[in-house]
Write a structure and sequence with these properties.
heterodimer; A: mainly beta; 3-stranded antiparallel β-sheet; 0% helix; B: mainly beta; 55% strand; globular
Amino acid sequence: SYVLTQPPSVSVAPGQTAMIPCGGDNIVSKSVHWYQRKPGQAPVLVVYDDSGRPSGIPERFSGSNSGNTATLTISRVETGDEADYYCQVWESSRDYVFGTGTKVTVL
Amino acid sequence: QVTLKESGPALVRLTETLTLTCTFSGFSLNTPAMRVSWIRQTPGEALQWLARIDWDGQQLYSTPLQTRLTISKDASRNQVVLTMTNMDAVDTGTYYCARFDSSGYFDFWGQGTHVTVAS
């Protein structure tokens, strides 16, 4: 089955840029979506189709996809961005696959 | 405004069947292209997609779990029900329902409901 690999954690200072990679075999051939999950809250879609941004999501959130790595970038990080982030794709054998998740800590 | 909320037992015994209900608002499962999925997170594991049901009744299941899962809908009550048979301790976790967009992503989620499986 298809595997999406993310680093367990990323730490960033307020105002800096956080980059969260999502590795998968030839992931560039797939559409990648990203979710933010805070404790006790419903997960939120923050990027869809590699780089699309849903209504209400700040422009600070952006995505890219190339080769074997997709990346979620959070610019000008705020304390409210502290959360777990997950990538997700549709796998050809009909399952939806999620990444292992990355905890973003704002220092 | 789209909202979804999961409900069900907090505790299930080993080998029993789990039944979870997703009650939603802001859209109708009678509308073409509307779809709802169930997703879970178990301790130490990534999010795992479980099942999907479409406006026309089509069902789709996670390949490794398909023999244990049944998803159904009551569109008139804006509800989707998931049953999972033969529950095991490894099934302990948080279960979410989410609306699925035809482009391949889950655009609205519930807060999740935690299920513990114990003897």
